Amino acid sequence: MAKIHLASLEKLIEDSEIQCAPMFAQIEKIEEGWTEIILSAMQEYHIAPRHFAPTTGYGYDDVGRDTLEKLFARIFATEDAIVRPQIASGTHALSLCLFGLTLPGDHILSVTGKPYDTMEDVLGIGEQPVVGSLKERKVDFSMVSLTKEGAFDIGNIEKMLRPNTKVIMVQRSRGYDWRPTLLPEEMESFFTHMKKNHPQIIIMVDNCYGEFVCEKEPSHVGADICAGSLIKNPGGGLAPTGGYIVGKATLIHQIATCLTAPGIGKEVGSYAGSYQPFYQGLFMAPHTVAQALKTMTLAARVFETLGFAITPKADERRGDIIQAIKMKAPEALIAFCQGIQMASPVDSMALPEPWEMPGYAHQVIMAAGTFVSGASIELSCDAPMKEPYILYLQGGLTYSHGKIALKKALSHMGKVLDQ
Ligand SMILES: *Cc1c(COP(=O)(O)O)cnc(C)c1O
């Protein structure tokens, strides 16, 4: 890598920003489309201050909760939705779906290869048995990877389907993988194929990091059920916690029995905090996602120019808010992460170090100086400490902050590497 000097860095970033203008325009167009959809849904449901009011106890007839769920269903064009602060994370939302949709003897097939790390224990597919996992409940799992080109491998999928296959799992985002994200339009023909040939199989999409990035959502192109985290895209950086599930009414009903209890389902669940950040967060989400996408596009352009291997490329269509960068050397990876942390609005004095994390084979380094603890819609990055030292950078509440942080992190990395 060429040496990074502050003056040349300023120029590199300014030049890159100019080159990103056409991509920024495209991102803003999609932002506007989603803003229009969300705004009209909010008007249609007559959103008013009464929807923000806290509730207590059982939460019967909680109008704030019920209307928020109607909004999500309308925006994702599904029959029903579960949107709750009580869903603790994206993993929890996905786990609820799988437990709600399967019975002992059923089979789940992932058609996008190994699912996100935290799903391993949910499925029980690691080396050690996991208490409460789907495997323990006699639900089988297998997987088919995407083709080298990043497409659905329909030939192998057909071979791996079984008479008892209940659910196929599709992970939209790259997660921590060096592969392209799946765009909803790429899902469409495969979903159509599945509907035609295997109409009984439920198509479930892990939509984490993907919401409002493209013109359409997987639920617009045939997914039966989609789930994600509210401290990622659809919370707009404001939702303090929570998860969502959208999809067919019968499936949502089944899942809701796991959320609370059979016979009770979606009817209970109060929230003593205000629902306002969830509504306002949803309203902000297309804008926040656009800020993150612009930040990632700029980062892509800058790293490309510096000679790093990256995915996606600056001018490639994005399906999620992640930018993967091969940092090549552990020193570069650590220094860049530390620079991102130093440039954060919160916990800027903390210095991230690689550490052992439960469930991970390698040490991991993370930078997340966020307002909402661990929210990766805010500018953050993480990386397993292994060759070829791939950094996963994501989020950014404002593009200005993203740009400033990029400059700071690169300059810090340059200083460390010069020593
Ligand atoms: C973040 C993420 C999850 C899990 O979400 P948590 O909120 O961290 O539990 C699952 N799948 C993908 C692709 C994700 O990005």
Describe this structure in words.
This protein is α/β, with parallel strands linked by helices and 419 residues long. The protein is 39% helix and 13% strand. The protein has eleven helices and twelve strands. It has helices spanning 6-19, 21-44, 63-75, 90-101, 119-123, 154-160, 184-197, 249-259, 276-305, 330-342, 399-418, and strands at residues 80-84, 107-110, 140-143, 165-171, 202-206, 225-229, 243-247, 310-311, 322-326, 364-367, 380-384, 390-394. The strands form two sheets. Strands 1-7-6-5-4-2-3 form a seven-stranded mixed β-sheet, with helices on both faces. The longest helix is centred in the C-terminal third of the chain and has 30 residues, at 276-305. The model has no long low-confidence stretch (mean pLDDT 96). It binds pyridoxal-5'-phosphate. The site of pyridoxal-5'-phosphate has 12 residues, from helix 4.
